[in-house]
Write a structure and sequence with these properties.
The complex is a heterodimer of chains A (about 375) and B (about 350). Chain A has about 375 residues and is an all-alpha fold. Chain A has 18 helices and two strands. Chain A has helices at about 10-35, 40-45, 50-55, 55-60, 70-95, 100-135, 150-155, 160-190, 195-210, 210-225, 225-235, 245-270, 275-280, 285-295, 300-315, 320-325, 330-340, 345-384, and strands spanning about 65, 140-145. Chain B is mainly alpha-helical and about 350 residues long. Chain B has a domain at about 105-335: Orthogonal Bundle (MetI-like fold), CATH 1.10.3720. Chain B contains 14 helices and four strands. Chain B has a two-stranded antiparallel ribbon. Chain B is extended and about 110 Å long. Classes of the chains: A mainly alpha (about 375), B mainly alpha (about 350). Chains A and B meet through helix 1, helix 8, helix 9, helix 10 and helix 12 of A and helix 1, helix 5, helix 6, helix 7 and helix 8 of B.
């Protein structure tokens, strides 16, 4: 606060600090707790004493644990990675990429950092600590129960890696197609004040409110019988659309389209129209103006919208669970099968590990793109 | 921009929306009046079991689906009018329950049960989301600059994680002897089963939804708080206004457009409540309208999907959406008229 008159008294500042701390605890607790549960043996994970869940005596007794030294090295690694991503990577991207193509740099940068992190955490660190722990004496003794066996069960034995690949295909497809289609439409709508543009936006608003199950009820019979009605056009090898990832991509792109065009439109409206008018005066037509003048400056808006398209496709349960068959199942519907089947506590902890695996990428996403997400949330609000 | 250029820019998007949103809507509308069933025929089957001297033969009438030349079941689609709607709504039973004032009978019919929960859920969470969102935004705004970033990061987590997983994470904290149930039991000194009756599950679901959406409201309101006119706040202090009065007469009127925006988004999303039912596996106690349609679409044990009933329930869900959207659409229309 700039003004002294508006400064809060100490008591109020303390109270609001306490409430803020409570909110942060409420916000983070469920997520942090399932992350802790996922690395404990079932006995510990379901212990009614919170301290036992955190320290994991049963896990430790089974011979799975980490020493003080392990913990220190782990924290150092994570801290180093965070510094690397927030401080070093942006500079590198700026120096290597041509202006306007930073997003390519971001994608590569994030992938490389993730690879480095996984390599360091899974290969280098265990090797180094394997040598150091016996030498460190008391510091090297296991104190905290921790096991990665549930993650191994999920990813290797239960074939979660296939679901991960399917999720990757679907989300990549949805983000690419919906941004390509949506950017063009958003630009067109932002620069045209015609009544038609207004009606398209209004109808898009209605479409945004539709429950997705209504739409899926429309697709299902058509998709299941598609081999029949596509046969006259495509011949005998007409595909059954049901269960195919590309059909789901098309559906999710369409469902996402109303939101995408509203959001991109508000971003394009913030780019001064004088910019492309100047290009038009210099002899460009609309498409050239779009490609040469608008495209270099539109990336912040496109990245933000892309993030939300990614979230929609990645988090979707309803459409993917109804329209994909077991073979092409993505991660979120797959986990529903896991916890419905849960019989033993081991199965439950395995499901918890799967859940944590699904939200881990989202965690990094917020860490890297916090600014873009906040600007995206507020962009829609400012324009209404 | 002339029409041809506009069409070239907007065309692909409009085409996709027509093909994958408008067309399915029409087809759902049509499906809700038709029903597709396998054709059954009654055949006389003679089953004989070997016996001594003579066989024992039994003839019985059996109904079985008609098969075509390739061994596929022949189906027939026929117009049934409002029959599917009647199957979903069960108007006679519902009406009898209403006239007798017997609410427990009414809640045995899936549709009315789902409608009741969806409406309660939407209306109760709305003020909670607005209140919590505003509260968190004010807290973040009065916090020191250095901790705002990390606090916003933590606040965004519940909003960004997969809804099904978010609901599951809360579920796991309370399910059985989950850690928070254990804490409650220790505190109240009695046995608690949170998943054995509908109302506790509903409270947990509403808690989940507020936890999930309040960060969104908070971020939007926080952005709005940055643009509050500091001069009018200061003059209010000079005039002797208390903190509460400043909030009520300056800050909230300034945030009003954002409050309307958040309410609108929340109404649309809460009316579609679905992931909670999956995450809390509560279908035995609590169901929502969208889950009802989903359930009709999932194949039953015989592998049949009741498409026509799903279509009918989908169309009934749509009526609610239309009612929800009338006000905001009227407002957009007025803005458009005023803007030109």
């Amino acid at each position: 606060m700039s003004s002294r008159a508006l400064r809060q008294p100490l008591s109020l500042r303390l109270t609001s600090g306490v409430f803020l701390a409570i909110w942060c605890l409420v916000a983070a607790f469920p997520i942090a707790w399932i992350a802790i549960m996922s690395v404990k043996s079932p006995v510990d994970a379901y212990d009614s004493n919170a301290l036992n869940v955190i320290l994991g005596p049963a896990t430790l007794a089974a011979g799975n644990g980490v020493s003080v030294l392990d913990i220190l090295f782990g924290i150092a690694l994570i801290w180093g990675m965070v510094r690397l991503i927030t401080r070093v990577v942006p500079g590198q991207i700026r120096s290597y990429c041509a202006p306007g193509q930073e997003w390519v740099g971001w994608v590569i940068g994030v992938l490389v950092s993730l690879l480095v992190f996984l390599l360091a955490a899974l290969v280098v660190l265990p090797a180094v600590l394997g040598v150091l722990n016996p030498m460190a004496g008391a510091l090297g003794r296991d104190v905290l129960g921790l096991t990665t066996e549930h993650y191994r069960t999920v990813w290797i034995e239960r074939g979660f890696i296939n679901n991960f690949r399917n999720s990757l295909i679907v989300t990549a497809g949805v983000v690419t197609v919906s941004l390509t289609v949506g950017t063009l439409a958003g630009y067109g709508l932002a620069r045209s004040g015609s009544t038609l543009a207004f009606w398209i936006l209004l109808i898009a608003l209605i479409f945004r409110a539709l429950p997705h199950s209504v739409l899926v009820a429309g697709y299902l019979p058509v998709f299941i019988n598609s081999a029949e009605w596509l046969a006259p056009i495509l011949g005998d090898n007409a595909p059954t659309l049901y269960g195919k990832p590309f059909a789901v991509i098309a559906v999710l792109v369409a469902i996402n389209q109303p939101f995408t065009i509203w959001m991109l439109r508000s971003f394009f409206q913030n780019i001064p129209a004088e910019l492309d008018e100047a290009a038009r005066v210099d002899g460009c037509n609309h498409f050239q103006a779009f490609r040469r003048v608008i495209m270099p400056v539109m990336w912040p808006g496109v990245i933000t919208t892309g993030l939300f398209s990614f979230l929609l496709a990645y988090n979707d349960f309803l459409v993917t669970s109804l329209l994909l068959d077991a073979q092409n199942q993505t991660m979120v519907p797959a986990i529903a099968g896991m916890f419905n089947r849960e019989t033993t506590t081991t199965d439950q902890v395995v499901a918890v590990a799967a859940a944590v695996s699904i939200i881990a990428p989202l965690f990094f996403l917020v860490m890297i793109f916090q600014r873009q997400i906040v600007s995206g949330l507020t962009a829609g609000a400012v324009k209404g | 921009m002339n029409f041809r250029t506009f069409a070239a820019f907007v065309g692909p998007s409009v085409f996709m929306m027509l093909l994958f949103i408008a067309f399915p809507l029409l087809s759902v509308f049509k499906q809700s009046f038709y029903i597709t069933q396998p054709i059954y025929e009654t055949v006389e089957v003679e089953t004989c079991t070997p016996g001594f001297l003579t066989q024992t033969c039994v003839t019985e009438l059996k109904s079985q689906p008609v098969l075509d030349d390739e061994g596929e079941i022949v189906t027939r689609t026929e117009f049934v009018g409002l029959q599917s709607y009647r199957n979903v709504l069960e108007p006679e039973r519902a009406w009898r329950a209403v006239t007798e004032g017997n609410w427990s009978t009414l809640s045995t019919i899936d549709f009315w049960k789902a409608l009741r929960f969806t409406l309660t859920f939407t209306l109760i969470t709305l003020p909670l989301v607005l209140g919590c969102g505003l509260g968190i935004a004010l807290l973040i705004n009065s916090a020191a600059g250095a901790i705002r970033g990390p606090v916003i990061f933590v606040s965004l987590l519940p909003f960004i994680i997969t809804p099904v997983i978010g609901a599951l994470s809360i579920n796991w904290l309370f399910r059985g002897d989950g850690i928070l149930t254990a804490l409650l039991e220790w505190w109240l000194q009695r046995d608690i089963a949170l998943f054995a009756q509908a109302w506790t599950i509903e409270i947990l679901m509403m808690f989940y939804r507020v936890w999930h959406v309040a960060p969104f409201a908070a971020v939007v309101f926080y952005a709005g708080l940055q643009t509050v006119n500091q001069d009018s706040l200061e003059s209010a202090v000079i005039d002797g206004a208390t903190r509460w009065q400043r909030l009520k007469f300056i800050v909230i009127p300034h945030l009003m457009p954002l409050i309307i925006f958040v309410s609108m988004i929340h109404l649309m999303d809460a009316y579609r409540v679905f992931e909670e039912i999956i995450g809390f596996s509560s279908q035995a106690y609590v169901i929502s309208l969208q889950w009802l349609t989903f359930d009709y679409l999932v194949p039953d044990q015989a592998g049949n999907r009741s498409i026509s009933r799903a279509s009918a329930s989908a169309m009934l869900t749509m009526i609610g959406i239309v009612i929800l959207l009338i006000l905001p659409l009227r407002r957009t229309w007025r803005d458009h008229k005023g803007g030109h």
